[in-house]
Amino acid sequence: MPQKYPLPETRWPTRAEVRQSLLFAPMQLGSLSLRARTWVPAMVPWRATDDGLVNQDVLDWYGRFADGRPAVIVVEASGIRDIASGPLLRVGHDRYLDGLRKLVDVVRERSQGETRLFIQTIDFLPLRRRPEKERYLREFLVLDDGHRERLARIDGMRAKAEGEEGMVREALIELPHETLLTVLLEREVEALEFGARERVTDTHLPHIADLPQTLPGLFADAAGRAREAGFDGVELHYAHAYTMASFLSRRNDRDDGYGGSPEHRVRLPLEVLRAVRERVGSDYTVGCRILGDEVIAGGSRIDDACHYSLALGRAGMDFISVSKGGKFEDAAQPRVGQAVYPYTGESGHECMPTVRSSAPGPFGRNLPLASEIRSSLRGAGLETPVIAAGGLCTFDQSEAALRAGHCDLVGAARQSLADPDWWLKMELGRGSDVRRCIYTNYCEALDQRHKQVTCQLWDRDLAPDDGVSRSHDGKRRMTAPPWAR
Ligand SMILES: Cc1cc2nc3c(=O)[nH]c(=O)nc-3n(C[C@H](O)[C@H](O)[C@H](O)COP(=O)(O)O)c2cc1C
Ligand code: SF4
Question: Atom 6 in ligand 2: which residue has the minimum CA distance?
Answer without folding.
Answer: 455
